[in-house]
Amino acid sequence: MKPRVSLQDSAFRNGNFSLRIDPVRSEDLGLYEAQVKYKAEVHSCHVELGVITVTLSPPNPVIENELLSMSCNSSHRGSLVETCWFHNQHLGPNSRTFCSSSGTLSIFHPAMSDAGSWRCQLRYSDKEIISATFNLQILGFDGPTNPVVYAAAGSAAD
Looking at the domain covering 52-139, what would its CATH class be? Predict the structure, then answer.
């Protein structure tokens, strides 16, 4: 897993033996065990790593007005009840939420306003809620709605 894995050696003296994986891949899921030996004592802990996969079709960046499908899947073994998609979670007119029983969201004519932070939230029958956030990039034009631009003679026009 090198070079994606690191230990924070400087935190050992404070009892922090954390393992960092960056970036996480689907094949990293599973059970991890940490063992710490101090003098004659051995301490261990087990941590299970679950993975959420967000898939875009076509892949990021997306071209404006081309059909976009976003799907969200998890390694969680429970029965999926609902998938919700949140766009620009800040309160206001640009905040949007979509929920469905399937894990896929389709945007038929993505626009520049669809770019930005998206979060998928998976809710399972065992009450487990899992989420992942990603940044959607849209390639397109974000110009004036009126194609006529006026500029003063002798000035610059963009």
Answer: mainly beta
pTM: 0.73
Contact 93, 45 (CB under 8 A): no
Cα separation values, 2 from 6, 31, 89, Å: 8, 18, 35
Q: Is the pLDDT of residue 81 over 90?
A: yes
Which residues, 6+ apart, have CB-to-CB distance to 156 below 8 Å?
Answer: none
**Residue 144 backbone class (left: φ over 0; alpha: ψ -120 to 50; beta: rest):** beta
Give domain limits for the chain: 5-49, 52-139
The answer to whether residue 122 scores a pLDDT higher than 90 is: yes
127 — alpha (psi -120 to 50), left (phi > 0) or beta?
Answer: left
Angstrom CA distances, 127 to 41, 53, 83, 102, stand at 38, 20, 13, 17
